[in-house]
Structures are given as C-alpha cells and as structure tokens.
Amino acid sequence: MKKSLCVVGLGYIGLPTSVMFAIHGHQVHGVDVNHKAVEMINNKQLHIEENGLQERLEEAVDAGNFKAALEPVEADVFVIAVPSPIREDKTANLDYVRKATEAIVPFVKEGNLVILESTVPPRTVEDVMVPVLKETGLDIGKELFISHSPERVIPGKVFQELVDNDRIVGGINETSSTMTKELYESFVKGNIHLTDATTAEMAKVIENTYRDVNIAFANELALISDKIGVNSWEAIKLANYHPRVNIHTPGPGVGGHCIAVDPWFLAEIEPDLSKIIQLSRNTNDHMPVYAAEQIQKIAKEQFIHDPKVALFGLSFKANIDDQRESPSLKVIMELVEKGISFKTYDPHIKENVASNQTQSMDEALEGADILVILTDHDEFKQLDPANIKGKMKNRLVFDTKNALSLDEWKNAGFIAKRLGDSKNG
Which of 16, 248, 394, 410 has CA 20 to 30 A from 52's CA? Predict the structure, then answer.
C-alpha cells in the first residue's frame, strides 16, 4: 500500500532514502533547513555526491512523487534522518533529533508512524523522542507508532546497500515494528529483523564500534611495524588468509559520521565499562598527529628545512565528497601547528572548505617537496609518477592509504614511503 511520507533531513542518508521511497510509488515530502539544498533538489540538482543519485532524483521529481521544502506537512509516515554528532567533550549532541521531532508534532495525527533513522545512543527513542511526541496528545503505541530503523549503508554504494543489506527495525511495540517492516519492504530485498527500539539503537552502535576497535588494532600494528621494520600491510594481508581472522587496514585516522562518532555514545553511557572502546577511539584520533609527524620526519631526513607539501585527498574515504570527521582535515590542523606549508587537492570536493585547497592537481604539485596521499581515490591510484616528478621541487611521496605501487614510484626516481611500512621506507 502506497503511503505519504515526510522525511526530515535531506543529507547523505535522508535524500537517497527519500528518492528510493518516491521511485517505488510513495508520495514523499522532504524537509531540510538548508535553503540552498531545498532549492537545488527541486531543480533536480545535487548538493551531495552519491553514485546513482542524480538519475534517481530526476525520476522521483519528474514522476511528481518527491519535492523538498523547509517545513513539514501532514503525512502517513514521518522519517527523521538528521545528524547526531558529538560535542567537543565527546558527548552526544541530540539537538537535531529533538528539534526534528518537535517540528513534526503539529502535523502528526492518529494512526501515523514515526521512524528514526539517525544513529543514536541507546534509549534515545524512549528518552528523547517519546516525551516530545506525547505533546501530540495521542496515545503512544495505540494511536501513534514509533520505531528506530538505522541506516546501514556505505557512501558510494548507498543505493545498492539500501536494497540488498539486511535491515534492523526496532519498534516501541510490535505494531510499530510491523508497520515499519511493511513500509521498507517496498524496496528492501535483504532480511528485515524485528526487535525493540533500544536494542536496535544498541545494535547499530555496536556495528560501528566493532569496526573502530578493529581499525585501532590495525593502526597499532602499523605503529609497531614502523618501529621494527615490517610492512604491516603485507603482514595483515597474510594474517587475513586465516579463515577466522579479518583485520581491517591502517591509515591516517578514522572519519565519517558513524565510526568516528558512535563509539563515544557507549563511552558516555558507561565510561567505566568501555575502556577498550575509549582506547580504540583515542588510538584512531591520534593517527592524524602521527601522519603529520611522519611528514615532518621525511622532510628532515632529506634535509628539507622548509618543506612544501601537496596533500591529496580531503574526504574521509575514497571516491566520495563527504568530509565529516575526515582525518585529512585533522592532518591539516597538525601541519598548521608545525608551521609546514601545504596545498590540498581533491577531485571530489567542489567547495573550497579546506585550507589552501587548489582546483587542479598541477597547482597543488607546483614547487612541492612531498606528495602525501591521505585518501585512496581511484584517481590517485592511477597517478603516473613519470608525469608527476617534473612538477615537483623534490621527489618524495608518502602514502598513508596503500594506494600507490611504491616500486613504480621508486623506479621513477622518488623516495617513496608508506605509513606502517618501515620495511620499504
């Protein structure tokens, strides 16, 4: 049965989710506080980058099933997909969730379903949303139904994973869960697992915390390998041939709206019981500092006293434009503190949000002593060192993402180093 939906939040999750519902026949009213984003969406223009989004947005708008606005409207279903960041003190900032819930209160009516997609600390639905929604005067669980169904997608593959991934649905009661399951079945092919709201919140935070802890382990292996003369990338690859081992890869830090944020939700709730989680977070947060120190060390080893650095990659992962919590931005801050000159380049970043961002690769490389790879975009993997060396003052390259063939760059006359690989340093 086709529904009318009001989706609050048209960012990296809300917009793809909106167009998916729209192209599957539902009538979707999208809401965002960003005037420019709303205008662009209604003109079938993108304010974010995601594979397959442009054509799906055009299909949804042309069919008359999707439009964006600044205010909510009445609907059968309300979906909240707003940010849930952390504050400077690492505590959860649920202001966006609370304000989005408050915004829909005047429009909610009997029989409606409210779904929270944002990743949040356990008990957010029960302790934050339910009290606000009681202001509707409706009997929660009998006249108004509420659930949590967290997104489980990766940027760059959002549409594939929206369809194919299993989905968790946690309602405040069985009816809420069932209603939510039936809605998502309009496009989800993966299994839909039903539970309660707090367990669903916990499960999503567990997923991202597991990955953060795993990456922290890989980063520790990289730090150890740099000390003892081992290639951690090769060692991890070999270890992963074991049928019960799956170690992630090291790098200059962890970014994104989930892995770099969600573990703090558990640390905030139970600080004395989350020692491994906190240590892992701190380990990963330290990696941009370590990367900046390695850049400085490489320059000193070659007696370059005032190095010029070309930083390639600003987004937190490959082939996207998302810079949320990007370790590249933290590396930049460290270089600024050290007084090291740099220029940045990222083919996926259109707006000049980073310090010294250039719009061309050649501009970033001009006069550079060290090329540093911070994001493993496909464009960077295809770089030809023979074409690069003539543009730089000195031929040094530091790869923090294992994106380059070091042998190829060394054969082209570069001194090539890789994070976590002192064997080839």
Answer: 248
